[in-house]
Queue: 3 jobs
Job 1
Amino acid sequence: MQTDAAAPAAPATPALPKKEVGATHEEIAALREELQRLRERVTLLEKAISAAPAPAPPEPPQADTLMVAGKLHWLHRAKEDPPLPSLSLPDPIHEKALVHNLRVLSGNQISIRSAAGDETARRLAERFKELFTEAEWHVDGVAELPLHQREKGLALAAGVLPPSRETTRTYLAFTAAGFALESRLDTSLQLDETMLIVA
């Protein structure tokens, strides 16, 4: 009668040296401390979020903002008509429309800058200053501004996005009067500052 041979014994797992076992215990303890610190931070964040006041609902648009578009003078161009030349003085029709629109939006302030070293841009900027002053706006400028040669035409710069109410209304006044304006963000400006750039 044959008997089954005994199965070979599994090789014994080598024991870790005492030094390595001690290091492992220290690492585990350090990880547990770090985990506890993270849990405490999460708890503090949850308390701070729950204690923060709920954001206030946006204010409804004011009546004068809703009605302003209907008070402006709009100059419509036919599709085949060329746009106004960027660095030529506007004709009396566009000037009259712009002054009217700026008066509708009176009480604001604007800074006017012209491209440094460009006499044509300076003359046009000075003319815009006269129109803003006629519309009873407070004007800062005209001063020269160093610009890249590729920056040409009229631009309206704001210090924040979305632009402030004043910047938006200024843009609307120019657009309704038939002027093409480029929008720019200039973080060096104050949050409520609007700058007209002529280049």
Note: Helices lie at 18-51, 63-71, 92-104, 119-134, 165-176.
Job 2
Amino acid sequence: MRTWTTHPSAPVVLVLAIVVASCLVLGTAGRGVRSESASTPDPDVTPSIPVEGGDRACGGERFDASAVSPYAPETAAYSGTGPHPVVLFKMDGGAVDAEPRLPADWLSWRYWSHTQLVVCQHLDDDPVPRVAGTCFTTDGSRETASVALYSASYVYRVFEARTGEPVTTFRLAGSINPCGALQAGGDTGTLRALVSSADLADRLRPWVEGDAPG
């Protein structure tokens, strides 16, 4: 049996194990990050669209304001009362089915032409990431792989889909530990704490569900 566990670095203490593609949190201390399991994506949340669809709408993987262009020029303007359909692009390379995900009733990806708002997730270069722990997998008593887990902050830029005009910008810190979502033999690249779906929805709700400014 292969198990993923987190070795903490003070003040974060995280010990996790995967049993049949689910993660059990054994202990935490300090601020810490929660664990994300490798379960099937929740049907009540809408996945982000693959990153290649947002290169122009989000100004590239390394944000360039001059490179932003309208995502859907033919769609309705961002105006009037909500809800305002929205799409999320993870320009930092985050997995489509990983946290964060948006509520399904904000937009079904099948109806991209109805989109009024584009949300772009970029990795924040400030503050500098710190090592928050180590994810490792074992096969019996033998350790087979280990990966450092880093803290992370993300910049969210929201644009009007029709015009590419900026609507708002904010930052969120990662609070979800991705160790539990790893599969034995999977990607062992850099791991970063992820923003929770709830945290992102809370920040976006006034723009998506409320009245458009003006």
Note: The two ends are 58 Å apart (CA to CA).
Job 3
Amino acid sequence: MEKFKEEVIKVLMGESEFTPDVLSPLILQTEEKLLVQQTKVSKAEAELKRPRRSVRKK
């Protein structure tokens, strides 16, 4: 994501060969992927915080 931010700055400064029309969809896709991964992490963290039931052997 940091690379995208750097490239957007270059676009704004007129120093990039990319146009905002090219970068915008790429940034959106990356943000969507990031959101999916953040959701997975949140679910995994919640699972780790749940108390586990101990299984007793007879």
Note: The mean pLDDT is 85.
